[in-house]
Design brief:
Length: about 250
Amino acid sequence: MAFQDYQRAFTGHIRDPQGTPRPNGVPARRMKVYSELLFNNIESFLLACFPVCRAILGQRKWTRLARAFFRDHRCHTPYFRQIPDEFLTYLQNGWQRPDDVPEFLPELAHYEWVELALSTSARDEQLPRYDAGGDLLTGCLVLNPVLRVLAYHYPVHRIGPRYRPQAAPALPTFLLAYRNAEFEVRFVQIDALAAHLLQTLEETPALTGHAAIEQLAPAGQSPVEAAWQAAGGGLLDNLRDAGAILGRRV
């Protein structure tokens, strides 16, 4: 057997010991050590990032899912820290959900993964100058760079062993996830207006708070009513208090 063919047979058996024959000449005991060592390493990284998914599925279904990922997915990174990223890609693109696995599992996995993504982000290393107490309506705003606005069909922040929704609610769930100054990742449920406002500010950072609120005003409201501006100003202040907005750019 050519060396590369031998390598493919060896790694194929490690990935799928039940479905791929062990290469000739390799002792079964030694092969089992390799297989279990590599799978257990992969699974340990998954368990660290997706504990709620594991609790929801239980040991048997979780192991089946982890085995399928180990067997079928081709990772595009050599870094162990990015194994959860690859697992999420697998769930969203390559995975065929069995009937006995909840429909919400990919969204729940994404929700759990966001905490890892934000906790390891370096996007706040170079911040522009800003006035933390400045007027948010009249200035351009500086958002927390370690922030994500999330929208899910399921209320993923509530899902756990005691709450497993059978169907998605009529309305989506919006969450604000961010890392604060103490390097703690926080999740806050927000409404659709706050989510759209943050998305508008992310997409068009040159907007003042006033201009961003104008873009969200109900159709036909021209000029924008003072009450709407006041409500929008209060929302901006609340987002600053929460840590999503750092202040006004200077």
